[in-house]
User: What shape does this take?
Amino acid sequence: MLLKHTTKEIMERSALTVNPAKTCQPIGAMYAALGIHGCLPHSHGSQGCYAYHRSSLTRHYKEPVMAATSAFTEGSSVFGGQANLLQAIDNMFTVYKPDLIAVHTTCLSETIGDDIPQIVNKAVAEGKVPAGKYVIHANTPSYVGSHVTGFSNMTKAMVDYFAETGAKKNKTINIVPGYVEPSDMEEIRRICDAMGIPIIMFPDTSRVLNGPLTGRFHMYPAGGVTIPELRQTGQSMGTVALGNLASTAAAFALDAKCKVPYKLLDLPIGLHGTDMFIDILRNIAGVNVPDSLTFERGQMVDIISDMHQYFYGKKVGLVGDPDQLLALTKFLVSLDMCPIHIVTGTPAGKKFTAELREATKEVPCDVNIKVEGDMYLFHQLVKNDPVDLLIGNSYVKYIAKDEDIPFIRHGFPIFDRIGHSYLPTVGYRGGILFLEKILNALMDRQDRDATDINMELVM
Amino acid sequence: MTGLAETMKEKYGIPFIRVSYFGIEDMAKALYDVAGHFKEQPEIMEKARELVRSEVTRIYPELQKIKARVCGKRAAIYVGGAFKAFSLIKALRYLGMEVVLAGSQTGNEKDYEILRDMCNDGTIILDDANPLELSKYIIEKNADLFIGGVKERPIAYKMGIGFCDHNHERKTPLAGFEGMLNFAEEVCQTVTSPVWQFAPHRSP
Assistant: This one.
């Protein structure tokens, strides 16, 4: 009972967060930056920040995560970090030879007020940035938003720094995949390939953070969106932005900068979410949906129909990131499940809360939605109204253990299981995998709790 | 079962009553018929009445809620014995559902006469049907629910309609008053499932 001090009684709290259901902006910015080929993310702050972000990403992906830091000392905390960043840029390009450096700020440098573009201009003027190499930046103060905001800011920076308006439009479609796993990005690309649509996906962490064992260490793995591709995003036919919180900023910026229209969709999780995604792609590109995708869709519907009695009426508690929560909630409702506790630590706004309300309006139970809640509150909600299944990141395992509730891991971070980097949640195939996870969790529990008489061989 | 009872009556003179324990109507009738047999012990009838009253009162509110959700849905029944089909028709009607197909594997001529009388005009009645026949008529009649045995389940699902399993390996009872409630809940759960909106022939 590691969380034995969590009380059932819920007290009003306004100024205290206990066990936050989010992490800080730079982690998301670092993750997004790793989705550019040949990029070295750089944390403009003290060493503690970067060490924590790197180790979180390393533990989540079980892959090498390369990044650098301005290594603020007491002096830089007082006088600003210009000298450190100039030195860092010089060192990085000399020693580690990235194609570009993606600088994100931290609480400390934001509070000091360091002006990153000014410092970078100075580095360029001093010849510290070799020809054909780039330094981009995003402001990511951690006291604003969450890791999702940081991801969004760095993705937008890719547009701000690289997108170019061209004389003619290309046949490509831009995909801003949102804060999803490398496996999801890979699956999104596979779907687009199957439809015969050339895409530019940014960021793209597939083949960066889910690579094979090859016997060699690569500082810059094979994957990631390239700088030429990022330039061409300005000439694409359109942009599909997946997930409002993580992707709208970049898509909007591209529209404003290069007149590339965008469509905003939920993450393509679940049947309906994937249908919408494929439908939009079909419309923008003017192609037909190939039989191979229709077949996969049919298989997914088949599994849901075969097992619908096991989903029916099961109560679920979810905690995680807004874009994921919205798509997952809609998916669960379409399975006849009852998501009754939905908590995110990210300040996602009233519109998001209203969308969740709308998504759960047919759920025949009281639904608790807390936007900017924490894990402590989530646990209290679960204590007051127990559920059949918990969905969340690894930290939820303590709640699952104490309350003895089946639990599936989804979101960030997942430190204690594998799979998320390699097996998608998006698309029809991802949907099938997610259905399997839900069913395994529920059925393992049914078997565990079955009496000798009620044990079922056939389920 | 009837064959066994007939033989026992013939050989040993043990009387028998044909009853069904499925559905409120038939379950109550079964209790009354048995109580009626013991004419010299009227307290048995008293107890039967009391039992039916308390059981029906107990499950009635829940059944009404379910009825509101499944009323007007169309059902197809294909079971082993015709006698079970009779009860199922009554139970489904109690829930406001319409039976558009009824059939059995082992019904005899007399059974089908009763079945014809029970069913509305236009109801398809099948004897010893095969999956192709069943699927043809289920689609034709636009059924929302299929009640059958283990091997029919995936057939129903492939067509995108709900299913209720009426086989002898079940562990959740469908017999008795409690069973009627279980039955209604299972029917409701499957016919109202959101998954069917994704089935091709249901799409507008």
User: Anything to note?
Assistant: The first strand of chain A starts at residue 39 and ends at 44. Chain A has a mean pLDDT of 96.
